[in-house]
Amino acid sequence: MFTGIITGVGRIVALDALGSSLQHGKRLRIETPSGYLDDVALGDSIALNGACMTVTTLPPGGLHFTVDVSAESLDKTCGLNQTGPINLEKALRAHDRLGGHIVSGHVDGVGRVSRFEPVGESWLLCVVAPKALAKYLAYKGSITVNGVSLTVNQVHDSAQGCEIGINLIPHTVQNTALGSLVVDRAVNLEIDTVARYVERMLSAGLNQKDAA
After folding, report:
1. How sure is the predictor about 206, in pLDDT bands with cuts at 50, 70 and 90?
2. Are 192 and 130 contained in the same domain?
3. If you write DSSP's letter for every residue of the chain in order, what string do you get?
4. pTM (2 d.p.)
5. Could you tell me if 54 and 85 lie in one domain?
6. Residue 78's domain spans which residues?
Protein backbone atom coordinates (compact mmCIF):
# COMPACT_ATOMS: atom_id res chain seq x y z
CA MET A 1 0.00 0.00 0.00
CA PHE A 2 1.18 3.53 -0.84
CA THR A 3 0.10 7.16 -0.52
CA GLY A 4 1.20 8.73 -3.80
CA ILE A 5 3.73 10.94 -2.01
CA ILE A 6 7.02 10.45 -3.86
CA THR A 7 9.95 9.70 -1.54
CA GLY A 8 12.70 9.95 -4.15
CA VAL A 9 13.49 10.26 -7.83
CA GLY A 10 15.65 7.45 -9.16
CA ARG A 11 16.90 6.52 -12.59
CA ILE A 12 16.59 3.31 -14.56
CA VAL A 13 20.13 2.76 -15.80
CA ALA A 14 19.96 -0.76 -17.21
CA LEU A 15 17.43 -3.28 -18.51
CA ASP A 16 18.34 -6.95 -18.90
CA ALA A 17 16.09 -9.50 -20.55
CA LEU A 18 15.05 -12.41 -18.30
CA GLY A 19 14.70 -14.70 -21.32
CA SER A 20 14.74 -14.84 -25.09
CA SER A 21 11.00 -14.82 -25.86
CA LEU A 22 8.28 -12.18 -25.71
CA GLN A 23 6.86 -14.00 -22.69
CA HIS A 24 9.93 -13.10 -20.65
CA GLY A 25 10.19 -9.90 -18.65
CA LYS A 26 13.13 -7.67 -17.78
CA ARG A 27 15.37 -6.98 -14.82
CA LEU A 28 15.64 -3.27 -14.09
CA ARG A 29 18.57 -1.66 -12.31
CA ILE A 30 17.57 1.57 -10.59
CA GLU A 31 19.98 4.11 -9.15
CA THR A 32 18.72 6.02 -6.12
CA PRO A 33 19.67 9.13 -4.12
CA SER A 34 22.32 8.61 -1.44
CA GLY A 35 20.86 7.01 1.69
CA TYR A 36 17.51 6.15 0.06
CA LEU A 37 18.00 2.41 0.50
CA ASP A 38 19.25 2.51 4.09
CA ASP A 39 15.98 1.10 5.48
CA VAL A 40 15.14 -1.15 2.51
CA ALA A 41 15.51 -4.94 2.61
CA LEU A 42 15.27 -7.70 0.02
CA GLY A 43 11.62 -8.43 -0.75
CA ASP A 44 10.41 -4.94 0.15
CA SER A 45 7.92 -3.21 -2.13
CA ILE A 46 8.80 0.00 -3.96
CA ALA A 47 6.49 1.70 -6.44
CA LEU A 48 8.14 2.68 -9.73
CA ASN A 49 6.10 5.37 -11.49
CA GLY A 50 3.12 4.03 -9.55
CA ALA A 51 3.68 0.32 -10.28
CA CYS A 52 4.40 -1.80 -7.19
CA MET A 53 7.55 -3.90 -7.61
CA THR A 54 9.61 -6.19 -5.34
CA VAL A 55 13.27 -5.50 -4.55
CA THR A 56 15.20 -8.54 -5.81
CA THR A 57 18.80 -7.49 -5.18
CA LEU A 58 20.58 -4.86 -3.08
CA PRO A 59 24.20 -4.76 -4.25
CA PRO A 60 26.90 -3.39 -1.90
CA GLY A 61 27.18 0.38 -1.76
CA GLY A 62 23.49 1.11 -1.21
CA LEU A 63 23.08 3.26 -4.31
CA HIS A 64 21.02 0.98 -6.53
CA PHE A 65 18.66 -1.99 -6.49
CA THR A 66 17.02 -4.29 -9.01
CA VAL A 67 13.48 -5.49 -9.68
CA ASP A 68 12.19 -8.19 -12.01
CA VAL A 69 9.27 -6.98 -14.13
CA SER A 70 7.08 -9.53 -15.90
CA ALA A 71 6.09 -9.24 -19.55
CA GLU A 72 2.49 -8.68 -18.40
CA SER A 73 3.49 -5.72 -16.23
CA LEU A 74 5.57 -4.23 -19.03
CA ASP A 75 2.58 -4.54 -21.37
CA LYS A 76 0.13 -2.88 -18.96
CA THR A 77 2.34 0.01 -17.84
CA CYS A 78 4.64 2.61 -19.34
CA GLY A 79 8.04 3.99 -18.44
CA LEU A 80 9.46 0.69 -17.19
CA ASN A 81 10.94 -0.42 -20.50
CA GLN A 82 13.46 2.38 -20.99
CA THR A 83 16.22 4.16 -19.13
CA GLY A 84 15.58 7.52 -17.52
CA PRO A 85 14.19 9.21 -14.39
CA ILE A 86 11.51 7.44 -12.40
CA ASN A 87 9.36 8.26 -9.36
CA LEU A 88 10.02 6.11 -6.29
CA GLU A 89 7.83 5.48 -3.25
CA LYS A 90 8.51 3.00 -0.48
CA ALA A 91 5.56 0.99 0.83
CA LEU A 92 3.42 2.62 3.53
CA ARG A 93 4.15 1.64 7.14
CA ALA A 94 1.37 1.38 9.73
CA HIS A 95 2.53 4.49 11.64
CA ASP A 96 3.13 6.70 8.57
CA ARG A 97 1.08 9.77 7.75
CA LEU A 98 -1.37 9.33 4.88
CA GLY A 99 -0.32 12.52 3.11
CA GLY A 100 -1.82 11.76 -0.31
CA HIS A 101 -4.57 9.17 -0.73
CA ILE A 102 -4.82 5.37 -0.55
CA VAL A 103 -2.84 3.94 -3.49
CA SER A 104 -2.46 0.24 -4.26
CA GLY A 105 0.41 0.42 -6.74
CA HIS A 106 -1.66 -1.37 -9.40
CA VAL A 107 -1.86 0.58 -12.67
CA ASP A 108 -5.43 0.80 -14.02
CA GLY A 109 -4.59 2.24 -17.41
CA VAL A 110 -2.15 4.25 -19.47
CA GLY A 111 -3.03 7.84 -20.30
CA ARG A 112 -1.36 10.35 -22.58
CA VAL A 113 -0.23 13.92 -21.86
CA SER A 114 -2.22 16.37 -23.99
CA ARG A 115 -0.93 19.57 -22.43
CA PHE A 116 1.86 20.55 -20.05
CA GLU A 117 2.67 24.22 -19.66
CA PRO A 118 3.30 26.89 -17.02
CA VAL A 119 0.32 28.89 -15.75
CA GLY A 120 1.33 31.60 -13.32
CA GLU A 121 3.66 30.09 -10.73
CA SER A 122 2.27 26.59 -11.34
CA TRP A 123 1.96 24.12 -14.20
CA LEU A 124 -1.13 22.81 -15.97
CA LEU A 125 -0.98 19.10 -16.73
CA CYS A 126 -3.72 17.64 -18.94
CA VAL A 127 -3.97 13.91 -19.50
CA VAL A 128 -6.34 11.94 -21.73
CA ALA A 129 -7.38 8.82 -19.83
CA PRO A 130 -8.91 5.70 -21.43
CA LYS A 131 -12.72 5.82 -21.74
CA ALA A 132 -13.02 2.87 -19.38
CA LEU A 133 -11.66 5.02 -16.54
CA ALA A 134 -13.92 8.02 -17.17
CA LYS A 135 -16.60 6.98 -14.65
CA TYR A 136 -14.00 7.03 -11.86
CA LEU A 137 -12.74 10.56 -12.56
CA ALA A 138 -14.45 13.51 -10.89
CA TYR A 139 -13.84 17.19 -10.18
CA LYS A 140 -11.78 17.50 -6.97
CA GLY A 141 -11.33 13.73 -6.90
CA SER A 142 -7.99 11.94 -6.61
CA ILE A 143 -5.88 10.38 -9.36
CA THR A 144 -2.39 8.91 -9.35
CA VAL A 145 -0.19 9.91 -12.31
CA ASN A 146 3.13 8.05 -12.53
CA GLY A 147 2.78 7.31 -8.84
CA VAL A 148 2.04 10.89 -7.75
CA SER A 149 -1.16 11.60 -5.80
CA LEU A 150 -2.91 14.53 -7.50
CA THR A 151 -6.25 16.37 -7.44
CA VAL A 152 -8.40 16.57 -10.56
CA ASN A 153 -9.37 20.18 -11.34
CA GLN A 154 -11.03 19.71 -14.74
CA VAL A 155 -12.92 16.84 -16.40
CA HIS A 156 -13.90 16.78 -20.08
CA ASP A 157 -15.47 13.70 -21.67
CA SER A 158 -15.09 13.06 -25.39
CA ALA A 159 -15.26 10.22 -27.90
CA GLN A 160 -11.50 9.74 -27.53
CA GLY A 161 -11.57 9.39 -23.75
CA CYS A 162 -11.68 11.55 -20.65
CA GLU A 163 -9.33 14.53 -20.44
CA ILE A 164 -8.46 15.65 -16.93
CA GLY A 165 -6.72 18.87 -15.96
CA ILE A 166 -4.38 18.98 -12.95
CA ASN A 167 -2.56 21.87 -11.31
CA LEU A 168 1.04 21.10 -10.31
CA ILE A 169 2.72 23.37 -7.80
CA PRO A 170 6.45 24.10 -8.33
CA HIS A 171 7.43 21.75 -5.47
CA THR A 172 5.82 18.79 -7.25
CA VAL A 173 7.45 19.62 -10.58
CA GLN A 174 10.87 20.03 -8.96
CA ASN A 175 10.75 16.99 -6.67
CA THR A 176 9.22 14.32 -8.91
CA ALA A 177 9.88 13.03 -12.40
CA LEU A 178 6.70 14.76 -13.64
CA GLY A 179 8.84 17.75 -14.53
CA SER A 180 10.29 15.79 -17.47
CA LEU A 181 6.89 15.14 -19.09
CA VAL A 182 6.15 16.37 -22.60
CA VAL A 183 3.04 16.36 -24.76
CA ASP A 184 2.09 12.89 -26.07
CA ARG A 185 4.14 11.12 -23.36
CA ALA A 186 2.40 8.06 -21.89
CA VAL A 187 1.76 8.01 -18.13
CA ASN A 188 0.59 5.38 -15.65
CA LEU A 189 -2.80 6.04 -14.06
CA GLU A 190 -4.38 4.58 -10.95
CA ILE A 191 -7.92 5.55 -10.02
CA ASP A 192 -9.04 6.34 -6.48
CA THR A 193 -9.74 3.18 -4.47
CA VAL A 194 -12.90 4.66 -2.95
CA ALA A 195 -14.29 5.46 -6.42
CA ARG A 196 -13.64 1.84 -7.46
CA TYR A 197 -15.74 0.46 -4.59
CA VAL A 198 -18.54 3.01 -5.03
CA GLU A 199 -18.85 2.05 -8.70
CA ARG A 200 -18.95 -1.64 -7.77
CA MET A 201 -21.64 -1.15 -5.14
CA LEU A 202 -23.80 0.89 -7.49
CA SER A 203 -23.45 -1.56 -10.40
CA ALA A 204 -24.17 -4.54 -8.12
CA GLY A 205 -27.37 -2.86 -6.94
CA LEU A 206 -28.51 -2.28 -10.52
CA ASN A 207 -27.80 -5.90 -11.44
CA GLN A 208 -29.86 -7.13 -8.49
CA LYS A 209 -32.83 -5.00 -9.61
CA ASP A 210 -32.53 -6.36 -13.15
CA ALA A 211 -32.49 -9.93 -11.81
CA ALA A 212 -35.63 -9.29 -9.78
Report:
1. low
2. yes
3. -B-S---EEEEEEEEEESSSSTT--EEEEEE--TTTTTT--TT-EEEETTEEEEEEE--TTSSEEEEEE-HHHHHH-SSSSS-EEEEEEEPPPTTS---S--B-S---EEEEEEEEEEETTEEEEEEEE-GGGGGG--TT-EEEETTEEEEEEEEEEETTEEEEEEEE-HHHHHHSGGGG--TT-EEEEEE-HHHHHHHHHHHHHHHHHHH-
4. 0.92
5. yes
6. 8-90
